[in-house]
Amino acid sequence: MTARPRLPNPIDSVALASLNTPDGWLAYPLGDDVIEGQPDTRMKLLRTVGVKTPHKSVAFFTSQPAKFHWRFDNDEAFVLIEGRIAITMDTGERFEMGAGDGVSIPAGHTGICEVFEFSRKFTVVTSGTAD
Fold first, then answer.
1. Any domain includes 18
2. Model confidence over 95-108: pLDDT tens digits?
3. Mind telling me which SUPFAM superfamilies this protein's record contains (predicted)?
4. Which residue range forms the structural domain that includes residue 63?
5. How many CB atoms lie within 10 A of CB 59?
6. Within a domain: residue 52?
7. Rounded Cα–Cα distance for residues 122 and 99 (Å)
8. 22's torsion region: left (phi>0), alpha (psi -120 to 50) or beta?
9. Count of CB atoms within 10 A of residue 8's CB?
10. For position 34, which CATH number holds?
């Protein structure tokens, strides 16, 4: 998997971002994980660390139609804001989602993500323990 961009945010700062503005979007290349299509994935980070968690990514994420491998190295939860996707987990379970649907996936899983139409989500990824 291609290395993902990371931005430092002061740990105690308030982060504000909009899905609807062009500023702040970063390329999120998927490299060899792409099975088909050209996802042109992008993200807009709001947070990269938490006050009580060593890793916490809070971001908007977009993708064009495509199919790609996805590893859930950390706990991940997201709400699909726009579009239609399906995730087929390594367990064989398949989750189809539309705008307004949310999911929480524990670390350690892998799967195949299919993006059927342009999609946008709001995601939170965490690892570590809170004190």
1. no
2. 999 999 999 999 99
3. RmlC-like cupins
4. 26-126
5. 22
6. yes
7. 11
8. alpha
9. 8
10. 2.60.120.10
Please write the tens of the pLDDT for every residue from 33-71. Answer: 999 999 999 998 887 766 666 667 888 999 999 999 999
Q: Which amino acid is at 36?
A: E
- The Cα 98–Cα 76 span in angstroms is 17
Q: And the tokens for 34?
A: 């792409």
Residue 37 CA to chain centroid, in angstroms? 18
Q: Rg for the chain (alpha carbons), in Å? A: 14
8 part of a folded domain: no
As a whole number of angstroms, the distance between CA 86 and CA 29 comes to: 20
Q: Tell the residue number behind the tokens 């929480």, with chain if given.
A: 104
- Residue for token digits 């993200």? 43
Give this prediction's pTM: 0.81
CA angle 129, 47, 85 (to 5 degrees): 90
In a domain, 95, yes or no: yes
According to the model, what pLDDT value does residue 19 have? 86
**What pLDDT does 56 receive?**
74
